[in-house]
Design goal:
heterodimer, A: about 280 residues, alpha/beta, Rossmann fold, 2 domains, 6-stranded mixed β-sheet, 4-stranded antiparallel β-sheet, 10 strands, disordered N terminus, B: about 260 residues, MetI-like fold, 11 helices, about 85% helix, globular, binds adenosine-5'-diphosphate, binds magnesium ion
Chain lengths: ~280, ~260
Amino acid sequence: MAMTQAILQAGRNEMAGSVLRADEPRIRIRDVTLSYGALQIIGGISIDIAPGESICVIGPSGCGKTTLLRMLAGLARPTSGAVELDGSVLGGPDRSVAIVFQDYGKALLPWRTAAGNVSLALEARGCPAKERPAIIRELLEKIGLGRHADKYPSEMSGGMQQRLQIARCLAQEPKVLLMDEPFGALDAMTRQALQDEVLSLVATTGATMVFVTHDLEEAIYLGDRIVCLQPNPGRVGRMVDVRLARPRDQLVTREDPEFLRLRRELYDLIKDDHQ
Amino acid sequence: MSHLSMRKLVLGILGLAAFILVWKAVTDAKLVSPIFFPSPERTWAALVKGLAGGPLLAQTVETIQRMLLGWLLASLVGIMLGALIGISRRARVFIAPTLELLRPLPASAMIPIAIAFLGFSDQMVLVVIAFGALWPMLLATIHGFSAMEPRLYEVSAVLGLNRLQVIWKLALPSALPMILASLRLGLTISLILAVVGEMLASREGLGQSILLASRSFRSADLFAGIVILGAIGLVGSRLLSMAERRLLRWQAAAR
Ligand SMILES: Nc1ncnc2c1ncn2[C@@H]1O[C@H](COP(=O)(O)OP(=O)(O)O)[C@@H](O)[C@H]1O
Ligand SMILES: [Mg+2]
């Protein structure tokens, strides 16, 4: 309980901080390009993302969504331009930027239990061994894995494994949460449950989120803004604001006329790209 | 114990009994001269006598010590060296061809070199054992490290694990199945080289004991020594299998 309070408090401080310097973005993507040899994959992307903002990235497959996200995580280096985190250039992976990979099966340690997998993030940031069990329990509880702490990933369903990966990311106490089509492999019900959990996590921690998806409705449901990428090379085609009330609700939000209008708009945009 | 493993045990014992019966039939029919080929009963008697009051027990302890010491040395060096080479792609590219060149050399080719440096000593035998048993561990560790899921390296980078933590918490556990299999192989090699080393360098142990028994046509003593060697190999490999099952529980969970 104390842990939740701490996280909530941290979240509030985060947001208080963002009020103080509201004009300074958490992430600034500054005219970024990326080429593999002669092939340009990303061709000049600039986006500012405010603290606590949730950005969703959509676009046809192969347009560079994953590549863009990997640059934000510091796992890929821009060929030109830069990614800035809180005003300083990101030179490599940073503990305050967490990433949830789509292939949870590969991203988890199969020889560690759920608790052990979360523990890895705590061990990495030098959290004392005595404090770990309480934090782990708190995080697993929060993400709905409280009763599965001793299970190995191979004993868990896809949805549970993805929950576990999210819990491990939260253990990093990140300022930025990157997600690469995290629910693409999950069934519709699990997907909706996890969407709501991510929304509530982002709301309580105040984290900034960049969420890649190929599902238009998911993008509208989660995002404050939607970036539509166009392929060859990857660049921003359109930026769409999502003016839907929060907290969002699977039934109410999805029936909102604005939701339907956005869906139509984005559908037409994407359709053009596919032609 | 599960139904299946019980069944396996029973079948194994039946097989052993059949083997001994055939052995007995061959010696009873005097197909081979008893000077070279003792009956099971005589072998058993020599075994009991040698272990109870004779020198066999001390020799067995000697050989087991030699084997374990060489194996531990090889495991330690093999896994540590393998980790250092395996964790860096540059080191792998740099060193792997040399290792591939050295690996097919039979451990016996090392013996003259070891003798030249260390003479006919216990240290010489130990070096030969360690050198021969080193390869499976070294190569399994390097291979296990290079076969680690690339996504896990990214996870470690994002979480901010340092290099030592990557080795200890990610690479070693992920290479563990291969390393454990190589430990079992290494133990077998250690036993073989302990026996060969004792024979060549006349060091106390089962190797020397069976060599002397064979030279003086004490075939029952010779076979008693061989039975003990077989038992050492079997028990060692069984113990390691048990350890393997315990350490790789997470794999069993996957099935
Ligand atoms: N390491 C790489 N080397 C060469 N080309 C790559 C590499 N990684 C990705 N690409 C190419 O970059 C393009 C964008 O890939 P990606 O970012 O994965 O797209 P998306 O996630 O939008 O489907 C693809 O055409 C892909 O083939
Ligand atoms: Mg992708």
